[in-house]
């Protein structure tokens, strides 16, 4: 297992495959193990790099997550890229990781080649985000499969990790914290907005939101799957890989 030091903490990362660097960014309450099943689809064409954000998976724990979580996690991605001395990196972020990927490219476009933002709400959290999040997390704690997923991603202390993440996201929604460190219009790298129209964990008007975002950025594309749940990178694994690979090689 490999780690790098970040602000007196250790962050876990893993590499597989050869080719152009591709960093995969996990969503909230998940960890890099969520990508294990799809890793074989990508590692023949890319040098895939997985990481666990601070406080998640095999990385060091924290006492609390900040309310601008996805902006601070972008700093961790930048630190990993610099640690590995990489340039022209592709980013693939799913769910919360999609915001992280975009913020990384906004902060350091000199390091990033292209971005895929998968299965996320876009420029703002949807209207009922806070209520839905509380209900979803409470139900998940009593659902066997959800509990097993959390434990698989986080380990024995999964409930603490989930609670800390919930608190941070609720504070973000309550205080209407900006999800991006800079205006989306300043994003200079090509980006693919991807998702599933059946995803009940994202806003219902995903196509409308993605379309408006595409109009704001200089080099934007959209791909929505008719079926599949959250996130589309897993529920449409093989088709997602083809779409993503084509986008990166375009």
End-to-end distance: 33 Å
Low-confidence spans: pLDDT under 50, at least 5 residues?
Answer: none
Task: Give the domain tally.
Answer: 1
The largest sheet is: 8 strands, mixed
What is the general shape? globular
- Rg calc: 17 Å
Strand and helix order: EEEHEHEHEHHHEHEHH
Under the CATH scheme, which architecture would be assigned?
3-Layer(aba) Sandwich
* CATH level-4 homologous superfamily: Alpha/Beta hydrolase fold, catalytic domain
Structure class: alpha/beta
CATH class: Alpha Beta
Helix content: 40-55%
State which percent range the strand residues make up. Answer: 15-25%
Q: Indicate the CATH topology.
A: Rossmann fold
* Mean model confidence by pLDDT: 96
> Count of helices?
9
Strand order of the largest sheet: 1-2-4-3-5-6-7-8
Please write out the topology.
Blueprint: E1 2-6, E2 9-16, E3 20-25, H1 39-42, E4 46-51, H2 69-83, E5 89-94, H3 96-107, E6 112-118, H4 129-141, H5 144-154, H6 158-174, E7 191-196, H7 206-216, E8 220-225, H8 232-235, H9 237-249
Parallel strand pairs: 3-4, 3-5, 5-6, 6-7, 7-8
Antiparallel strand pairs: 1-2, 2-4
Write up this protein.
This protein has helices at 39-42, 69-83, 96-107, 129-141, 144-154, 158-174, 206-216, 232-235, 237-249, and strands spanning 2-6, 9-16, 20-25, 46-51, 89-94, 112-118, 191-196, 220-225. The mean pLDDT is 96. It has nine helices and eight strands. It has an eight-stranded mixed beta sheet with strand order 1-2-4-3-5-6-7-8, with helices on both faces. The protein has a single domain (2-123, 179-249), classed as Alpha/Beta hydrolase fold, catalytic domain (Rossmann fold, 3-Layer(aba) Sandwich), CATH 3.40.50.1820. Helix 2 crosses helix 3, helix 4 packs antiparallel against helix 6 and helix 5 (144-154) crosses helix 6. It is of the alpha/beta class and 250 residues long.
């Amino acid at each position: 297992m490999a780690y790098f030091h970040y602000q007196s903490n250790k962050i876990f990362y893993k590499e597989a495959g050869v080719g152009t660097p591709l960093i995969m960014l996990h969503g909230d309450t998940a960890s890099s193990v969520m990508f294990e099943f799809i890793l074989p689809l990508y590692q023949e064409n890319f040098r895939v790099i997985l990481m666990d954000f601070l406080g998640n998976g095999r990385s060091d724990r924290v006492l609390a997550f900040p309310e601008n979580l996805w902006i601070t996690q972008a700093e961790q991605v930048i630190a990993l890229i610099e640690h590995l001395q990489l340039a022209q990196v592709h980013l693939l972020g799913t769910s919360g990781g999609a915001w992280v990927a975009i913020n990384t490219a906004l902060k350091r476009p000199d390091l990033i080649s292209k971005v895929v933002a998968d299965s996320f709400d876009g420029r703002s959290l949807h209207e009922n985000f806070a209520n839905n999040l509380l209900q979803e997390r409470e139900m998940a704690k009593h659902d066997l499969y959800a509990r097993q997923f959390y434990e698989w991603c986080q380990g024995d202390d999964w409930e603490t990790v989930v609670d800390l993440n919930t608190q941070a996201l609720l504070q973000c929604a309550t205080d209407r914290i900006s999800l991006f460190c800079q205006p989306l219009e300043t994003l200079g790298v090509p980006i693919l907005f991807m998702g599933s129209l059946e995803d009940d964990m994202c806003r219902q008007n995903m196509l409308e939101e993605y379309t408006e975002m595409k109009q704001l950025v200089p080099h934007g594309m959209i791909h929505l799957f008719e079926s599949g749940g959250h996130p589309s990178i897993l529920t449409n694994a093989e088709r997602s890989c083809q779409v993503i690979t084509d986008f990166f090689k375009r």
